[in-house]
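Deliverable D5.2: sample structural annotation.
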Amino acid sequence: MKKKSKVWYLENFNFFAELSLEHRTFVCQNTVMRTIQKDELVYFQEDLAHSVYFLKMGRIKISKFSEDGQEFLVTILQPGEVFGEASILGINKRKEAAIAEEQVTFCVMKEEHFRKLLLMSPALNLKFSQLLEDKLEKTQKRLQDLSLKNNQQRIIEFLRETALDSSKEHKGELIINNSLTHQRIAQLTSTNRQEVSSVLSLLKKNRIIDYNRKVIKILKMDQLVSH
């Protein structure tokens, strides 16, 4: 991929927003851009961990698989997210799989180059540490929710968190890109598709949300609470 495309990418990737020109040049010289198609692997469970990835376009699912092949969906990554950071933590093998949900474009940087970049930029090092801390908190919260909240509460909390994290505001409404199917929401909340459909229908009936195949609109954020 042309260097110009990499420069454009760096300028539009929030994780690298504060980097100096020197550091951006380093990233540009030590990354590879890749595009893969739906259902193709970025990496699989137990693969050697030796790179960090930056998602530019499309969505990637992070899943864990049991010995008998059952899938546990961990999260769905959106453009702008960093993943595969296990190698920086000294973990030699992947504990999960990264699979394209659609055509995706991402940037790959080898572990040694990323470590060097973190040493070059203390601000980026701090940002990366905060990113790891946020991911750990989300994992712990999900485990806590499984034990303390019922299915309806988990679904509503998921909508609320998604709205706060990745929504856009339009005419006073929070708009979530409805790229997640009811089945995907069910997997992410450890519920089932029927319960997700039931909760969304109830929220729509009460005019707390509205939705179609393209978007979910949060009409009354203050009422989007679990009980």
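Annotation notes: The CA atoms of residues 35 and 149 lie 39 Å apart. The chain has two domains: 6-147, 149-223.
The annotation will be released with the project's public dataset once the embargo ends.
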